[in-house]
């Protein structure tokens, strides 16, 4: 009996079927990769959109500082009383001794406070009749360093924020622009002597040179010290 042989046509049909299956598998893999890539890109675009919207929302809702006033001021040292053009002053000739940064419950000498502005402090002043709870709220909202807080007679706004050469009149202690002002101008680019000391100066001197004792609050407690020049 002779050997049986598989018809050539059957072999070709088998190979064609295998080739078709291989191509189908490759097409399926390509579709899977495409779906995966599309999904990843969609997630990335979605995240980018959320981040972009969040940044836009934060920027668009951030309080603007358009109302900040800027001034050209001198910066010589003097031991004489100075009459300033701004209330409170934002710069100008000033005492050789800076005011210790901190929170005061009584007015502080302008000439010393201006020297602290020269070192990068922000001076936040408020009307003396501001309720005590609002004063506390004001102090709690501010950083602990390079800040001077004190009452000031004659303000034409409830709260005024001053830095060297700049000033912003605020509607009250909850005015959101205060935080932005402090971020922008405390040790800001307008500071003549950024990083210079805000301690080791004085807690207040009269124009005659005798020490006064403005009572610092417990939250800051500046310590009187000998006069120092800068």
Characterize the structure shown:
The chain has 230 residues and is of the alpha/beta class. It has 2 domains: 11-61; 69-185, Glutaredoxin (3-Layer(aba) Sandwich), CATH 3.40.30. Helices cover 35% and strands 10% of the residues. The protein contains 4 helices and 6 strands. It has a 6-stranded mixed beta sheet with strand order 1-6-5-3-4-2. Helix 3 links the parallel strand 3 (122-126) and strand 4. The longest helix has 54 residues, at 8-61. The protein is rod-shaped. The chain starts with 7 loop residues before the first helix and ends in a 45-residue tail after the last helix. Residues 206-230 have low confidence and may be disordered.
């Amino acid at each position: 009996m002779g050997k049986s042989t598989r018809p050539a046509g059957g072999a070709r049909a088998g190979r064609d079927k295998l080739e078709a299956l291989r191509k189908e598998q490759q097409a399926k893999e390509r579709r899977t990769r495409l779906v995966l890539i599309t999904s990843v890109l969609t997630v990335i675009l979605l995240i980018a959109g959320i981040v972009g919207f969040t940044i836009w929302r934060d920027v668009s809702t951030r309080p603007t500082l358009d109302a900040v006033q800027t001034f050209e001021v001198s910066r010589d040292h003097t031991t004489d009383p100075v009459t300033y053009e701004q209330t409170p002053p934002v710069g100008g000739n000033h005492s050789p001794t800076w005011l210790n940064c901190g929170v005061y419950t009584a007015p502080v000498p302008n000439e010393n406070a201006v020297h602290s502005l020269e070192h990068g402090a922000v001076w936040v002043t408020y009307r003396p009749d501001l309720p005590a709870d609002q004063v506390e709220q004001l102090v709690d909202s501010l950083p602990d360093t390079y800040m001077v807080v004190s009452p000031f007679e004659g303000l034409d706004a409830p709260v005024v924020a001053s830095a060297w050469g700049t000033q912003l009149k605020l509607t009250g202690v909850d005015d959101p622009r205060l935080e932005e002002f402090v971020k922008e101008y405390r040790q800001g680019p307008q500071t003549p002597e950024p990083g210079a000391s805000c301690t080791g100066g004085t807690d207040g001197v009269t124009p005659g040179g005798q020490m006064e004792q403005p009572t610092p609050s417990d939250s800051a407690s500046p310590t009187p010290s000998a006069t120092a020049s800068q």
